[in-house]
Design brief:
3 helices, two-stranded antiparallel sheet, disordered N terminus, three-stranded antiparallel β-sheet, rod-shaped, 21% strand, 9 strands, 220 residues
Length: 220
Amino acid sequence: MELAYPLNSTSLQSIPIRSATMSIVLLRNGAMALGVTGLLLFGMSQLIATDLQEPPVEESPTIAPIHLPELKPTVIRETRVAKPQELPPPITPTTVEHTLDPGDMPIIFQPPTTTGTKVDTSIVTADPMPIYKPAPRYPRRAMAKGIEGYVVVEFTISKNGSVKNPSVVGGYDASGTPTDVFNRSALKAVERFKYRPTVVDGKPVEKHGVRNRISYKLAD
């Protein structure tokens, strides 16, 4: 037995509407695809039509030739240091002999008086007399070189017997050649001399122009 169902009018009407909507969507998608494809083809044609050229090559600047000066090798020579000479053996210290010329020193006395027991000092006259004369030091330079000689010194004997204003008249070695190797030593020695001063009429006075010769000699 067959059942008969009545057809619904509503369902019959929705079928054609759905088919139309799908057709519109398909057309729209197809149009979009054609548009994109056309744009791609247009872009490729533009790239092909573009005239691409190689960038121009710039010429390199001309460099003038460089002339180097002639170089000579530098030779460094080492100077050998000379071997130091052996020092001479030390010289044994020796005593210095000095010769002094005190000169004549007369002493004048007047005849004694018989009227008194005291002696009148005003009648006494005497030349200076050395009291203390230290030996000078032998200069090291002269001793090292074995130089001998002498120095003549002139000075003034003051009223108290000390030496004033000493000066060197001349200094000489053993051969008579002038030298100043002993001058300083001689002056220092003379400055320490002590004298009994010159007495005139019982009063001490200065004595000018006194000369001494100081000799320097190495012992044998």
